[in-house]
Amino acid sequence: MNSILDPQRVAITTLNNEEIARYSRHLIMPEVTMEGQKRIKTASILLIGSGGLGSPLGLYLAAAGVGRLGLVDFDVVDHSNLQRQILHGTKDVGRPKIQSAADRIRDVNPNVKLDLHETRFTSQNAMGIAKDYDIIIDGTDNFPTRYLANDVSVLLKKPNVYGSIFRFEGQATVFAPALGGPCYRCLYPEPPPPGLVPSCAEGGVLGVLPGIIGVIQAIEAVKLIIGQGEPLIGRLLLFDALAMKFREMKLRRNPQCPICSEKPTITKLIDYEQFCGFTPAPTTNGAAKSSADEISVTDLKKRLDAKEDFDLIDVREPHEWQIAKIPGARLIPLGELPNRLGELDSKREILLHCKSGGRSGRALKLLKEKGFKNLKNVAGGIEAWATQVDPSVPKY
Asked: pTM higher than 0.70 for the full model?
C-alpha cells in the first residue's frame, strides 16, 4: 500500500539528532527507515476522546513520533476512569481530561504538537475541527459520535480508524471509502434503539481491554502513514479476551449506503442525537423537559421519608445490588422482569430505578406494554441518588 500522505509535505520534513536518537529503533527497520519516520512526523491525527481507547492511542502515537495530535474531550477525570484510562492518574481526579492527557503526552514526547479542543464533538464544529488532520480516530463509546465521526471522515475523504470495547470483547477496523473500503454506515446503516445496547458504564469493561484495541488502532494508523503492510480496510478484527482468540470478518461497501455510495442521500452533517433517538423533548424556552414518567431522586427521598405507599423496584443486576442500593428498594433485574410480573401489584404506584436511568426506562416501557399504568422512572438512577441525596452511597 502507499502512504496516505502528500509526498511534497514529507519531503520538507527533517529529523534532528535528538529525534534520530529517540526513534532509532524505527530507523533501523527496513519497513520504516528515515523516510518512514519523516512521514510519521509529518502526519496529523485527530483523537476524539481521551478515555479508554484514547489513552493507549495518545501514548503510543506520541511515542511513535506523530508530529501533530488533536485531542477532543470535554469530560473530567473520575475515579471510575482510573481502572483503564491510563492517560490519567489519581492526582488528576476532577481535572479536565484534556489537560491531564496533554500533560502526560508532553511528558512522553515533547516534540509532538498538541491541539486541544476542550469541547463536545458536534455536527456544528466537527468539520472545522477535523478538516486539517490526515486521520480521524474515534475513541468514544456512544452512537451519536460514532456516526458523526464516520460522516465527517467520509465527507472529508479521510480514514477513520475505528475501535470499540465491551466487557471482554473488542473490535477494530479502518473505514476508508476514499481508499476503496466501506464506512461505518455500510456495517451499521441504522443505530440500535436507545438503551438496547448497554454502554461500558452499564455493562462494564475489563480494564486491560482498551489497551489491546487502542494499540491495534495505533498500529493501523501508523501503517496508513508509512504505507506498509495490509491495513484493516474491508476487514473487521474481533477479539475475545476470555477465549484469547482473534477472528476476522470481511466487510464490503454497501452500494446503497446513504453516505459513501455513488448516489448518497447524506451530503452534510445531520443532528446525530436525534438520529440516534437521544434528543430530549424541548420546552417552550428551549430547555430540556422532564418526562411526566420521571421522578427526581430528591422527590423520591421526600416520598420515602413520608412513608408513602409505592413499590420501588431496582432493575440492575445482583452484582450491582451488592455494590450499592437505595433503602426500601427491592431487586428485580431487567432481564428477569418479564417472568416476574406476578410479583408486582398493578394497582400500586411503581417507581423504577437502575444505575443512571436507561435500563429503568426500558423497564417502564415494558410494564406499560403489559398494562401497568401508574409508573415512574427515577431520573439519573442510583448515580443521581449518590450525588444529590446520600454521598455515602458508593459510585461505580
From this structure: yes
